[in-house]
Amino acid sequence: AQGRMNAWLAFAAGTAGSLVGAIFNYYIAVWLGRPLLHRYSKYLLIREESLDRAEAFFRRHGEISMFVGRLVPVIRQLISLPAGLARMRVDLFAFYTALGAGIWCAVLTAIGWFVGKNAGIVTGIDELMDQPEFHRYSVIAGLILLPVLITIVVVYVLRHRRAAGQGSGEQE
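The structure assignment produced for this chain is given below.
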């Protein structure tokens, strides 16, 4: 069916492309990141202590950071870099990247299918993304996801604090 979008193929391609790009960025950060940041940190106004704290934070909370970061515009393109700097386990990195990217790709695929269906024949992705409805629904989806992400983070923080409190109580 020419001119028809295969939603499953679009979803799979989007998720796979996100994962491949994220893994590429991860390994760039592993290979070049730390030495490059050490060398140019004074020009980037990054103190060594700040870099160490950021890496320590990511080592403790990398999974939730990776998942939530994949669902936040702008952050989703950059979150692979601290994961690579912290040398997050690649299997966990790939899992949380695929999970977060998959959710976002499913949302964008659904929006694309809906807008394309209601806009008539759309000949390509560029034409689809130029549709004002696509942008409007993408913003709405982001606004709907925001309280969900906040809830996930709050639950994570509360559980993490409770576990830390129980752990310190047992040591006494």
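Interim note for the steering committee: DSSP finds seven helices and no strands in the chain. The chain has a mean pLDDT of 79.
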